[in-house]
């Protein structure tokens, strides 16, 4: 098992006062998991009070592209074992990949339900139970299909001293958004999970309507 105990002292600020500082690093600690013992860094977004975390492993502020997962909160998939989506297995696979490499970062962003919040996601799921797809359900509730913003992710990465990523994602819009906020994506690493009978339609909709790169959909 890899351990974060030997990694460099901690996050390094870029020193550039013109950076958009949307987040503030509050505290860091050890986080043992089944895959590795990570460093966990807790951030707050002063403008909104939202709290986010990053898990890091190894030496990450050395300028070389860092294997990275930018994961959006999904309480149902990440914590409650829901099979409606692919979030839980993606989270596990990302931590396993970072541990296997001995170096990397996972940002856990508190933008549940593609930014619409937990209870609106439950409303969206109820509409999907009646036949709407994931995009139609958001629209019926008066939201865009995806209301997430990655300025916070870019700010956290800068505070961790990371400027270049090997990003585990199937979402080209996530790559574009991070680059727009000044983070280089040296490589997109596909992060495809084997579908199950409950999420096959959802994954097809993501590929067809949200532009996700999921081979076979
Ligand atoms: N509004 C809404 N949000 C959902 C639904 N299913 C999952 N989510 C949320 O979607 C977010 C994950 O986004 P995804 O579209 O699965 O994937 P992504 O992060 O864009 O792309 P990847 O990096 O490839 O995983 C999490 O915040 C989930 O809570 C849904 O049916 N409706
Ligand atoms: Zn999910």
UniProtKB/TrEMBL annotation:
Keyword set, alphabetical order: GTP-binding, Hydrolase, Metal-binding, Nucleotide-binding, Riboflavin biosynthesis, Zinc
Cofactor needs: Zn(2+)
Disordered, as annotated region: 1-23
Top-level class of the enzyme under EC nomenclature: hydrolase
InterPro entries: GTP_cyclohydro_II, RibA, RibA-like_sf
UniProt cross-references to NCBIfam families, sorted A to Z: PRK00393.1, ribA
Record function comment: Catalyzes the conversion of GTP to 2,5-diamino-6-ribosylamino-4(3H)-pyrimidinone 5'-phosphate (DARP), formate and pyrophosphate.
Name of the protein: GTP cyclohydrolase-2
Species per Swiss-Prot/TrEMBL record: Aromatoleum anaerobium
């Amino acid at each position: 098992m890899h351990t974060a105990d030997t990694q460099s002292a901690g996050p390094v600020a870029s020193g550039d006062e013109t950076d958009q500082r949307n987040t503030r690093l509050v505290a860091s600690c050890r986080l043992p998991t089944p895959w590795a013992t990570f460093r966990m860094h807790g951030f707050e977004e002063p403008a909104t009070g939202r709290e986010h975390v990053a898990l890091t492993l190894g030496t990450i502020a050395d300028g070389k592209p860092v294997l990275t997962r930018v994961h959006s909160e999904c309480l149902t998939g990440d914590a409650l074992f829901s099979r409606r989506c692919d979030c839980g297995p993606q989270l596990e696979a990302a931590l396993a990949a970072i541990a296997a490499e001995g170096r990397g970062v996972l940002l856990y962003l508190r933008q549940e339900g593609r930014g619409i919040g937990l209870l609106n996601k439950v409303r969206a799921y109820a509409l999907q139970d009646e036949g709407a797809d994931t995009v139609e359900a958001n629209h019926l509730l008066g939201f865009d299909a995806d209301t997430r913003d990655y300025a916070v992710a870019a700010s956290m990465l800068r505070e961790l001293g990371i400027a270049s990523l090997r990003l585990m994602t199937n979402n080209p819009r996530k790559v574009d958004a991070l680059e727009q906020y000044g983070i280089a994506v040296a490589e997109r690493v596909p992060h495809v999970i084997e579908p199950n009978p409950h999420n096959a339609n959802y994954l097809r909709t993501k590929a067809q309507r949200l532009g996700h790169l999921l081979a076979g959909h």
